[in-house]
């Protein structure tokens, strides 16, 4: 079985959920190894990577240098020289790392994939494109492949026979760059799960009238993140980091709840590939209903409290 390297994403030293999704996918493609850029991980995190099938955790001690993408690409390249496939989470930064690595190694690269499999020894990826109106299967013809995978598109599952991952240190010669890291200041995490990774997103648009209380309450209850339309962020009702859509964040949660959002094409482009779409809107002709799996015609001020009460009742059994 060929080596499949997964670039680990971590937050404050803790491995993120999409990394486990990527490791789960990697197990179906070959023998997974995890690549960790930065300071050495805690033993507990190495163990968690092992549970999801990583046979090795290759640490490239880059410190903060890995925040410069050309250095991150070089570090990843040094740790994946023997890998037939490299899997990354399709974030903005990782897409640049992927393409730089592909340029350096001649590997074929696909980003924003919703899945990947081996067909006749070649990697084939699945993607939804053009605001999720087309499904595309891409075959990577080169021997080496790099796949950027969207969060929430693979169900993370522990390996059937989890092993203890071995910690290996890989030294890498990092290139001189014209950029330098002068300071690293963590931005206080916004409430809840980051939007792009969240398994559930509850979004509010102009129909909220600027009051996000119910949207937040439902998101919290479902363990999800709060999203918004651009009109809502432009109004200053909620910060731009919550914006979903063409110019905002692309999300692919298992459940997307659109509250008081008309479903303009620019918004749909960022959420249409979600697993199940629920829409609440007073206008039965709102375009969001064209793509909703479940639609409720009604005022969100009436509908959301009922939904919240029913979910709470259901949880209480
Ligand atoms: C280049 C470009 C890029 C863009 N990028 C983005 C993007 O990334 N993301 C994005 O979202 N937009 C984007 N837009 C803007 C987009 O075209 C729409 O204008 C925007 O998505 C509309 O936001 P909305 O649905 O909240 O508001 P509206 O279109 O005004 O819809 C509000 C909806 O709420 C419903 N409603 C009103 N009151 C209630 C109530 N009490 N209960 C339930 N429903 C109610 C109404 O029936 C209506 O359907 C972009 C536009 C351009 C030109």
TrEMBL record:
Residue spans crossing the bilayer: none
Signal peptide feature range: none
InterPro entries: DHS-like_NAD/FAD-binding_dom, ETF_a/b_N, ETF_a/FixB, ETF_asu_C, Rossmann-like_a/b/a_fold
Required cofactor names: FAD
Span of domain Electron transfer flavoprotein alpha/beta-subunit N-terminal: 4-185
Role of this protein: The electron transfer flavoprotein serves as a specific electron acceptor for other dehydrogenases. It transfers the electrons to the main respiratory chain via ETF-ubiquinone oxidoreductase (ETF dehydrogenase).
PANTHER family reported for this sequence: ELECTRON TRANSFER FLAVOPROTEIN ALPHA (PTHR43153), ELECTRON TRANSFER FLAVOPROTEIN SUBUNIT ALPHA, MITOCHONDRIAL (PTHR43153:SF1)
Family membership: Belongs to the ETF alpha-subunit/FixB family.
Subunit structure comment from the entry: Heterodimer of an alpha and a beta subunit.
Protein name per its UniProtKB record: Electron transfer flavoprotein subunit alpha
The species this protein was found in: Demequina sediminis
Gene: etfA
């Amino acid at each position: 079985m060929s080596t499949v390297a997964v670039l680990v994403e971590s937050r404050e030293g803790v491995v993120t959920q999409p990394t486990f999704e990527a490791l789960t996918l990697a197990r179906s493609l070959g023998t997974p190894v995890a690549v960790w850029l930065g300071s050495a991980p805690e033993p507990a995190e190495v163990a968690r990577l092992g549970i999801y099938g990583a046979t090795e955790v290759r640490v490239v001690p880059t410190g903060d240098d890995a925040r410069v993408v050309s250095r991150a690409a070089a570090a990843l390249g040094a740790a994946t020289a023997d890998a037939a496939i490299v899997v990354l989470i399709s974030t903005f930064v990782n897409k640049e790392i992927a393409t730089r690595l592909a340029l350096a190694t001649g590997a074929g690269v696909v980003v924003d994939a919703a899945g990947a499999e081996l067909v006749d020894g070649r990697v084939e990826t699945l993607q939804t494109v053009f605001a999720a109106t087309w499904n595309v299967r891409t075959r990577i013809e080169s021997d080496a492949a790099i796949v950027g995978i969207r969060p929430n598109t693979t169900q993370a599952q522990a390996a059937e026979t989890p092993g203890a991952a071995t910690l290996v240190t890989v030294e890498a010669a990092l290139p001189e760059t014209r950029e330098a890291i002068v300071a690293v200041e963590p931005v206080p995490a916004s409430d809840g799960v980051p939007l792009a990774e969240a398994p559930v997103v509850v979004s509010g648009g102009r129909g909220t009238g600027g009051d996000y209380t119910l949207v937040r309450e439902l998101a919290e209850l479902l363990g999800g993140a709060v999203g918004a339309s651009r009109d809502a962020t432009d109004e200053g009702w909620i910060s731009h980091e919550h914006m979903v859509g063409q110019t905002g964040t692309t999300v692919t949660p298992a459940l997307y709840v659109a509250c008081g959002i008309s479903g303009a094409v620019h918004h749909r482009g960022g959420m249409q590939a979600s697993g199940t779409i629920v829409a609440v809107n007073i206008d039965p002709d709102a375009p969001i209903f064209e793509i909703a799996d479940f639609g409720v015609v009604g005022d969100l001020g009436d509908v959301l409290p009922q939904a919240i009460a029913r979910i709470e009742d259901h949880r209480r059994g």
